[in-house]
What does this fold into?
Amino acid sequence: MTAPSAESSVGPRPRRASVGVRVGEGEAGVMVGAGAPIIVQSMTNTDTADIEATARQIAALAAAGSELVRLTVDRDEAAGAVPHIRDRLRAKGVTTPLIGDFHYIGHKLLRDHPACAEGLDKYRINPGNVGFKNKRDLQFGRIVEIAIRNGKTVRIGANWGSLDQELLTLLMDENALSPAPLEARAVTREAMVRSALISAARAEEIGLPRSRIILSVQDLIAVYRTLGQRSDYALHLGLTEAGMGSKGVVASAAALGVLLQEGLGDTIRISLTPEPGGDRTLEVRVAQELLQTMGFRVFAPQVAACPGCGRTTSTVFQELARDIHSHLAASMAQWRARYPGVERLNVAVMGCIVNGPGESKHADIGISLPGTGEAPAAPVFVDGVKTVTLRGSRIAEEFKALVEDYVDKRFGPKERAAE
Ligand code: SF4
It folds into this structure.
Protein backbone atom coordinates (compact mmCIF):
# COMPACT_ATOMS: atom_id res chain seq x y z
CA MET A 1 0.00 0.00 0.00
CA THR A 2 1.38 3.41 -0.83
CA ALA A 3 1.30 6.28 1.70
CA PRO A 4 -1.58 8.70 1.13
CA SER A 5 -0.52 12.07 -0.17
CA ALA A 6 -1.63 15.24 1.57
CA GLU A 7 -3.65 16.10 -1.53
CA SER A 8 -5.51 12.81 -1.87
CA SER A 9 -9.06 12.47 -0.63
CA VAL A 10 -7.95 10.00 2.03
CA GLY A 11 -5.07 12.21 3.14
CA PRO A 12 -4.96 14.53 6.11
CA ARG A 13 -7.20 17.56 6.38
CA PRO A 14 -5.63 20.89 5.48
CA ARG A 15 -3.22 22.02 8.17
CA ARG A 16 -4.66 24.31 10.81
CA ALA A 17 -3.55 27.92 10.30
CA SER A 18 -1.03 28.85 12.98
CA VAL A 19 1.29 31.75 13.66
CA GLY A 20 4.82 31.04 12.45
CA VAL A 21 7.55 30.83 15.09
CA ARG A 22 11.20 30.97 14.15
CA VAL A 23 13.42 28.95 16.48
CA GLY A 24 17.11 29.74 16.17
CA GLU A 25 18.96 32.41 14.31
CA GLY A 26 19.95 33.04 10.71
CA GLU A 27 20.30 30.10 8.38
CA ALA A 28 20.27 27.68 11.30
CA GLY A 29 16.81 28.89 12.31
CA VAL A 30 13.84 26.57 11.88
CA MET A 31 10.30 27.76 11.14
CA VAL A 32 7.56 26.11 13.19
CA GLY A 33 3.96 26.69 12.10
CA ALA A 34 2.52 29.02 9.44
CA GLY A 35 2.33 26.10 7.01
CA ALA A 36 6.04 25.22 7.31
CA PRO A 37 6.87 21.49 7.16
CA ILE A 38 6.08 19.74 10.46
CA ILE A 39 9.33 19.87 12.41
CA VAL A 40 10.89 16.80 14.04
CA GLN A 41 12.42 17.33 17.45
CA SER A 42 13.97 15.15 20.12
CA MET A 43 15.37 15.34 23.63
CA THR A 44 18.65 14.21 25.16
CA ASN A 45 18.81 11.87 28.14
CA THR A 46 22.37 12.64 29.19
CA ASP A 47 23.29 14.68 32.25
CA THR A 48 23.55 18.14 30.70
CA ALA A 49 26.43 18.94 33.07
CA ASP A 50 28.37 16.26 31.18
CA ILE A 51 29.34 18.51 28.30
CA GLU A 52 31.06 15.88 26.20
CA ALA A 53 28.31 13.26 26.44
CA THR A 54 25.53 15.78 25.83
CA ALA A 55 27.25 17.39 22.86
CA ARG A 56 27.86 13.93 21.41
CA GLN A 57 24.25 12.90 21.80
CA ILE A 58 22.92 16.15 20.34
CA ALA A 59 25.24 15.71 17.35
CA ALA A 60 23.92 12.15 16.88
CA LEU A 61 20.30 13.29 17.11
CA ALA A 62 20.98 16.10 14.65
CA ALA A 63 22.72 13.69 12.27
CA ALA A 64 19.68 11.41 12.46
CA GLY A 65 17.55 14.34 11.34
CA SER A 66 16.33 16.01 14.52
CA GLU A 67 15.70 19.61 13.53
CA LEU A 68 15.45 20.88 17.12
CA VAL A 69 16.99 19.26 20.20
CA ARG A 70 15.86 19.80 23.79
CA LEU A 71 18.06 19.29 26.82
CA THR A 72 17.36 19.32 30.54
CA VAL A 73 18.50 22.42 32.42
CA ASP A 74 17.84 21.45 36.00
CA ARG A 75 20.64 22.99 38.08
CA ASP A 76 23.53 25.43 38.01
CA GLU A 77 25.99 22.87 36.61
CA ALA A 78 23.66 22.11 33.72
CA ALA A 79 22.99 25.79 32.98
CA GLY A 80 26.72 26.48 33.14
CA ALA A 81 27.38 23.66 30.66
CA VAL A 82 24.94 24.92 27.99
CA PRO A 83 27.23 27.53 26.34
CA HIS A 84 30.10 25.01 26.27
CA ILE A 85 27.85 22.38 24.68
CA ARG A 86 26.79 24.91 22.10
CA ASP A 87 30.40 25.90 21.36
CA ARG A 88 31.41 22.28 21.01
CA LEU A 89 28.56 21.63 18.60
CA ARG A 90 29.34 24.71 16.54
CA ALA A 91 32.97 23.58 16.30
CA LYS A 92 31.67 20.31 14.79
CA GLY A 93 29.45 22.24 12.39
CA VAL A 94 26.23 21.27 14.20
CA THR A 95 23.92 24.29 14.20
CA THR A 96 20.67 22.61 15.28
CA PRO A 97 18.70 24.99 17.53
CA LEU A 98 18.75 24.03 21.21
CA ILE A 99 15.82 24.09 23.61
CA GLY A 100 16.30 24.30 27.38
CA ASP A 101 13.82 22.32 29.49
CA PHE A 102 13.17 24.21 32.73
CA HIS A 103 11.13 23.26 35.78
CA TYR A 104 10.75 24.97 39.20
CA ILE A 105 13.90 27.13 39.14
CA GLY A 106 14.08 28.17 35.49
CA HIS A 107 13.80 31.86 36.43
CA LYS A 108 16.88 31.60 38.68
CA LEU A 109 18.94 29.52 36.27
CA LEU A 110 18.24 31.87 33.38
CA ARG A 111 18.98 34.91 35.54
CA ASP A 112 22.20 33.51 37.03
CA HIS A 113 23.52 32.06 33.79
CA PRO A 114 23.11 34.70 31.10
CA ALA A 115 25.30 32.74 28.68
CA CYS A 116 22.84 29.85 29.00
CA ALA A 117 19.89 32.19 28.41
CA GLU A 118 21.66 33.52 25.36
CA GLY A 119 22.96 30.19 24.08
CA LEU A 120 19.60 28.45 24.02
CA ASP A 121 17.22 29.13 21.16
CA LYS A 122 14.04 28.32 23.02
CA TYR A 123 12.93 27.83 26.62
CA ARG A 124 10.43 25.13 27.51
CA ILE A 125 8.47 25.92 30.64
CA ASN A 126 5.39 24.58 32.35
CA PRO A 127 3.05 27.20 33.82
CA GLY A 128 2.09 24.81 36.61
CA ASN A 129 5.58 24.48 38.02
CA VAL A 130 7.40 27.75 37.41
CA GLY A 131 6.57 28.69 41.00
CA PHE A 132 3.91 28.31 43.64
CA LYS A 133 1.12 30.58 44.93
CA ASN A 134 1.97 34.28 44.70
CA LYS A 135 5.43 33.58 43.27
CA ARG A 136 4.12 31.79 40.20
CA ASP A 137 3.16 34.83 38.14
CA LEU A 138 6.28 36.68 39.18
CA GLN A 139 8.61 33.86 38.20
CA PHE A 140 6.74 33.13 34.99
CA GLY A 141 7.07 36.84 34.15
CA ARG A 142 10.80 36.78 34.81
CA ILE A 143 11.36 33.90 32.41
CA VAL A 144 9.29 35.64 29.76
CA GLU A 145 11.23 38.89 30.24
CA ILE A 146 14.53 37.07 29.81
CA ALA A 147 13.17 35.47 26.64
CA ILE A 148 12.14 38.90 25.33
CA ARG A 149 15.54 40.42 26.13
CA ASN A 150 17.33 37.60 24.35
CA GLY A 151 14.88 37.32 21.44
CA LYS A 152 14.03 33.70 22.31
CA THR A 153 10.99 31.53 21.78
CA VAL A 154 9.08 30.01 24.71
CA ARG A 155 7.17 26.76 24.65
CA ILE A 156 4.44 26.82 27.23
CA GLY A 157 3.50 23.25 28.05
CA ALA A 158 0.70 22.28 30.40
CA ASN A 159 0.35 18.71 31.66
CA TRP A 160 -1.55 16.72 34.25
CA GLY A 161 1.33 16.35 36.65
CA SER A 162 1.75 20.07 37.11
CA LEU A 163 -1.66 21.48 36.31
CA ASP A 164 -2.52 24.83 37.90
CA GLN A 165 -4.41 23.59 40.97
CA GLU A 166 -6.01 26.95 41.76
CA LEU A 167 -7.49 27.16 38.29
CA LEU A 168 -8.66 23.56 38.49
CA THR A 169 -10.35 24.16 41.87
CA LEU A 170 -12.08 27.26 40.51
CA LEU A 171 -13.44 25.39 37.48
CA MET A 172 -14.50 22.42 39.62
CA ASP A 173 -16.43 24.78 41.92
CA GLU A 174 -18.09 26.50 38.96
CA ASN A 175 -18.96 23.13 37.47
CA ALA A 176 -20.51 21.91 40.72
CA LEU A 177 -22.88 24.89 40.66
CA SER A 178 -23.77 24.39 37.00
CA PRO A 179 -27.28 23.05 36.20
CA ALA A 180 -25.64 20.48 33.87
CA PRO A 181 -22.28 19.61 35.44
CA LEU A 182 -19.64 17.95 33.29
CA GLU A 183 -17.61 14.89 34.26
CA ALA A 184 -14.55 15.70 36.34
CA ARG A 185 -12.23 14.64 33.51
CA ALA A 186 -13.85 17.11 31.11
CA VAL A 187 -13.38 19.88 33.65
CA THR A 188 -9.73 18.91 34.09
CA ARG A 189 -9.23 19.00 30.32
CA GLU A 190 -10.79 22.45 30.23
CA ALA A 191 -8.41 23.52 33.01
CA MET A 192 -5.47 22.37 30.95
CA VAL A 193 -6.58 24.23 27.83
CA ARG A 194 -7.27 27.38 29.85
CA SER A 195 -4.00 27.08 31.74
CA ALA A 196 -2.07 27.03 28.46
CA LEU A 197 -4.09 29.87 26.92
CA ILE A 198 -4.03 32.07 30.04
CA SER A 199 -0.26 31.64 30.33
CA ALA A 200 0.23 32.43 26.65
CA ALA A 201 -1.95 35.54 26.97
CA ARG A 202 0.07 36.60 30.02
CA ALA A 203 3.31 36.16 28.11
CA GLU A 204 1.91 38.33 25.32
CA GLU A 205 0.86 41.01 27.82
CA ILE A 206 4.41 41.09 29.15
CA GLY A 207 5.62 41.67 25.61
CA LEU A 208 6.50 38.29 24.12
CA PRO A 209 5.08 38.31 20.60
CA ARG A 210 2.78 35.48 19.49
CA SER A 211 5.44 34.62 16.93
CA ARG A 212 7.65 33.57 19.86
CA ILE A 213 5.16 31.25 21.57
CA ILE A 214 4.54 27.53 21.01
CA LEU A 215 1.95 25.65 23.06
CA SER A 216 1.71 22.05 24.15
CA VAL A 217 -0.69 20.14 26.39
CA GLN A 218 -1.18 16.61 27.63
CA ASP A 219 -3.99 14.09 27.10
CA LEU A 220 -3.59 14.61 23.46
CA ILE A 221 -6.66 14.20 21.39
CA ALA A 222 -9.45 16.06 23.17
CA VAL A 223 -7.28 18.78 24.65
CA TYR A 224 -5.40 19.53 21.45
CA ARG A 225 -8.61 19.67 19.46
CA THR A 226 -10.00 22.29 21.83
CA LEU A 227 -6.74 24.20 21.95
CA GLY A 228 -6.53 24.16 18.17
CA GLN A 229 -10.07 25.50 17.84
CA ARG A 230 -9.56 28.29 20.34
CA SER A 231 -6.20 29.67 19.24
CA ASP A 232 -3.75 30.05 16.42
CA TYR A 233 -0.60 29.48 18.48
CA ALA A 234 1.86 27.04 16.92
CA LEU A 235 1.40 23.60 18.52
CA HIS A 236 3.96 21.06 19.70
CA LEU A 237 2.63 17.47 19.74
CA GLY A 238 4.02 14.74 21.94
CA LEU A 239 2.79 11.85 24.04
CA THR A 240 4.74 12.05 27.27
CA GLU A 241 4.26 8.60 28.73
CA ALA A 242 4.29 6.62 25.50
CA GLY A 243 6.42 3.83 26.95
CA MET A 244 9.05 1.43 25.65
CA GLY A 245 9.59 -0.48 22.43
CA SER A 246 6.71 -1.24 20.10
CA LYS A 247 4.18 -0.08 22.71
CA GLY A 248 5.75 3.39 22.77
CA VAL A 249 5.94 3.56 18.98
CA VAL A 250 2.33 2.44 18.51
CA ALA A 251 0.93 4.68 21.26
CA SER A 252 2.72 7.73 19.89
CA ALA A 253 1.87 7.02 16.26
CA ALA A 254 -1.79 6.37 17.06
CA ALA A 255 -2.24 9.50 19.17
CA LEU A 256 -0.20 11.85 17.03
CA GLY A 257 -1.53 10.30 13.83
CA VAL A 258 -5.12 11.23 14.70
CA LEU A 259 -4.17 14.84 15.38
CA LEU A 260 -1.94 15.16 12.34
CA GLN A 261 -4.73 13.70 10.21
CA GLU A 262 -6.98 16.46 11.54
CA GLY A 263 -4.47 19.11 10.47
CA LEU A 264 -3.16 19.81 13.98
CA GLY A 265 0.50 20.04 14.96
CA ASP A 266 3.47 22.13 13.82
CA THR A 267 6.28 20.20 15.49
CA ILE A 268 6.37 16.70 16.96
CA ARG A 269 8.44 14.68 19.35
CA ILE A 270 8.12 10.93 19.81
CA SER A 271 8.93 10.30 23.47
CA LEU A 272 10.17 6.73 23.71
CA THR A 273 11.51 5.26 26.91
CA PRO A 274 14.85 3.87 25.72
CA GLU A 275 16.15 0.41 26.44
CA PRO A 276 19.12 0.63 28.82
CA GLY A 277 21.99 1.81 26.64
CA GLY A 278 19.59 2.01 23.68
CA ASP A 279 19.95 4.29 20.69
CA ARG A 280 18.36 7.66 21.42
CA THR A 281 18.06 8.46 17.73
CA LEU A 282 15.24 5.93 17.43
CA GLU A 283 12.75 8.62 18.44
CA VAL A 284 13.90 10.76 15.53
CA ARG A 285 13.51 7.94 13.02
CA VAL A 286 10.04 7.07 14.32
CA ALA A 287 8.95 10.72 14.03
CA GLN A 288 10.27 10.86 10.47
CA GLU A 289 8.60 7.59 9.54
CA LEU A 290 5.28 8.79 10.93
CA LEU A 291 5.42 12.03 8.96
CA GLN A 292 6.56 10.26 5.80
CA THR A 293 4.00 7.47 6.05
CA MET A 294 1.24 10.05 6.44
CA GLY A 295 2.48 11.95 3.40
CA PHE A 296 3.59 15.14 5.18
CA ARG A 297 7.30 14.99 4.48
CA VAL A 298 9.90 12.89 2.72
CA PHE A 299 13.06 12.02 4.63
CA ALA A 300 14.43 8.79 3.20
CA PRO A 301 13.85 6.24 0.43
CA GLN A 302 11.07 3.80 1.21
CA VAL A 303 11.27 0.05 0.87
CA ALA A 304 7.88 -1.51 0.30
CA ALA A 305 8.07 -5.15 1.30
CA CYS A 306 5.25 -7.62 1.63
CA PRO A 307 4.93 -9.33 5.02
CA GLY A 308 5.67 -12.76 3.53
CA CYS A 309 3.41 -15.75 4.04
CA GLY A 310 3.26 -19.49 3.42
CA ARG A 311 4.15 -18.90 -0.23
CA THR A 312 7.62 -17.75 0.69
CA THR A 313 9.14 -20.22 3.09
CA SER A 314 12.82 -19.50 2.50
CA THR A 315 14.65 -16.64 4.22
CA VAL A 316 15.89 -15.20 0.89
CA PHE A 317 13.04 -12.74 0.78
CA GLN A 318 13.48 -11.46 4.36
CA GLU A 319 17.23 -11.22 3.88
CA LEU A 320 16.91 -9.22 0.68
CA ALA A 321 14.34 -6.85 2.19
CA ARG A 322 16.63 -6.29 5.19
CA ASP A 323 19.73 -5.91 2.98
CA ILE A 324 18.10 -3.36 0.74
CA HIS A 325 16.78 -1.44 3.72
CA SER A 326 20.19 -1.25 5.40
CA HIS A 327 21.95 -0.57 2.11
CA LEU A 328 19.71 2.45 1.45
CA ALA A 329 20.11 3.69 5.03
CA ALA A 330 23.90 3.34 4.89
CA SER A 331 24.13 5.00 1.47
CA MET A 332 21.96 7.99 2.34
CA ALA A 333 24.71 10.05 4.01
CA GLN A 334 26.63 10.12 0.70
CA TRP A 335 23.63 10.06 -1.58
CA ARG A 336 21.97 13.06 0.03
CA ALA A 337 24.78 15.34 -1.12
CA ARG A 338 25.38 13.59 -4.42
CA TYR A 339 21.86 12.84 -5.58
CA PRO A 340 19.40 15.63 -4.77
CA GLY A 341 15.86 14.27 -4.41
CA VAL A 342 17.00 10.69 -3.76
CA GLU A 343 14.93 10.58 -0.57
CA ARG A 344 11.88 10.26 -2.84
CA LEU A 345 13.09 6.92 -4.20
CA ASN A 346 10.84 3.99 -3.51
CA VAL A 347 11.88 0.39 -3.85
CA ALA A 348 9.71 -2.74 -3.67
CA VAL A 349 10.90 -6.14 -2.49
CA MET A 350 8.10 -8.67 -2.86
CA GLY A 351 7.93 -12.30 -1.88
CA CYS A 352 6.09 -14.02 -4.75
CA ILE A 353 4.15 -13.72 -7.96
CA VAL A 354 0.78 -13.00 -6.27
CA ASN A 355 1.44 -9.33 -5.50
CA GLY A 356 5.09 -9.10 -6.54
CA PRO A 357 4.88 -7.87 -10.13
CA GLY A 358 1.97 -5.51 -9.40
CA GLU A 359 3.61 -3.81 -6.41
CA SER A 360 7.01 -3.77 -8.11
CA LYS A 361 5.51 -1.92 -11.07
CA HIS A 362 4.28 0.79 -8.71
CA ALA A 363 7.75 1.33 -7.25
CA ASP A 364 10.61 3.19 -8.94
CA ILE A 365 12.47 -0.09 -8.92
CA GLY A 366 11.12 -3.36 -7.61
CA ILE A 367 11.85 -7.04 -7.55
CA SER A 368 9.46 -9.95 -7.32
CA LEU A 369 11.21 -12.92 -5.76
CA PRO A 370 10.24 -16.51 -6.49
CA GLY A 371 7.86 -17.97 -3.95
CA THR A 372 7.85 -21.60 -2.89
CA GLY A 373 7.39 -23.82 -5.92
CA GLU A 374 7.91 -20.99 -8.43
CA ALA A 375 10.66 -21.06 -11.04
CA PRO A 376 13.87 -19.61 -9.49
CA ALA A 377 13.62 -16.31 -11.33
CA ALA A 378 13.16 -12.77 -10.02
CA PRO A 379 11.84 -10.20 -12.49
CA VAL A 380 12.96 -6.61 -11.88
CA PHE A 381 10.73 -3.67 -12.80
CA VAL A 382 12.09 -0.19 -13.42
CA ASP A 383 9.60 2.67 -13.64
CA GLY A 384 6.85 0.14 -14.19
CA VAL A 385 8.58 -1.82 -16.93
CA LYS A 386 10.15 -5.26 -16.60
CA THR A 387 13.80 -4.82 -17.54
CA VAL A 388 15.59 -7.98 -16.49
CA THR A 389 15.07 -11.28 -14.70
CA LEU A 390 17.65 -12.22 -12.09
CA ARG A 391 18.56 -15.84 -11.36
CA GLY A 392 20.99 -17.79 -9.25
CA SER A 393 22.67 -17.18 -5.92
CA ARG A 394 23.67 -13.54 -6.48
CA ILE A 395 20.22 -12.03 -6.81
CA ALA A 396 20.72 -9.75 -3.78
CA GLU A 397 24.04 -8.29 -5.00
CA GLU A 398 22.75 -7.85 -8.52
CA PHE A 399 19.58 -6.15 -7.39
CA LYS A 400 21.55 -3.76 -5.15
CA ALA A 401 23.76 -2.89 -8.13
CA LEU A 402 20.64 -2.20 -10.20
CA VAL A 403 19.32 0.09 -7.47
CA GLU A 404 22.65 1.97 -7.41
CA ASP A 405 22.53 2.29 -11.17
CA TYR A 406 18.96 3.56 -11.08
CA VAL A 407 19.82 6.15 -8.42
CA ASP A 408 22.81 7.38 -10.42
CA LYS A 409 20.86 7.63 -13.68
CA ARG A 410 17.80 9.26 -12.18
CA PHE A 411 19.30 11.55 -9.56
CA GLY A 412 22.91 11.87 -10.70
CA PRO A 413 24.61 14.80 -12.43
CA LYS A 414 24.08 13.45 -15.95
CA GLU A 415 20.35 13.37 -15.49
CA ARG A 416 20.35 16.86 -13.99
CA ALA A 417 22.43 18.20 -16.85
CA ALA A 418 20.04 16.70 -19.38
CA GLU A 419 17.00 18.29 -17.72
S1 SF4 B 1 3.43 -11.18 -2.25
FE1 SF4 B 1 3.37 -13.43 -2.12
S2 SF4 B 1 4.76 -13.89 -0.42
FE2 SF4 B 1 4.26 -11.73 -0.23
S3 SF4 B 1 2.53 -11.74 1.19
FE3 SF4 B 1 1.70 -11.70 -0.90
S4 SF4 B 1 1.30 -13.85 -1.36
FE4 SF4 B 1 2.68 -13.84 0.40
User: Anything to note?
Assistant: Residues 306-309, 311-312, 350-352, 354-356, 371 surround iron/sulfur cluster (CB under 6 Å). The first helix runs from residue 51 to 64. Confidence is low (pLDDT under 50) at residues 1-8.
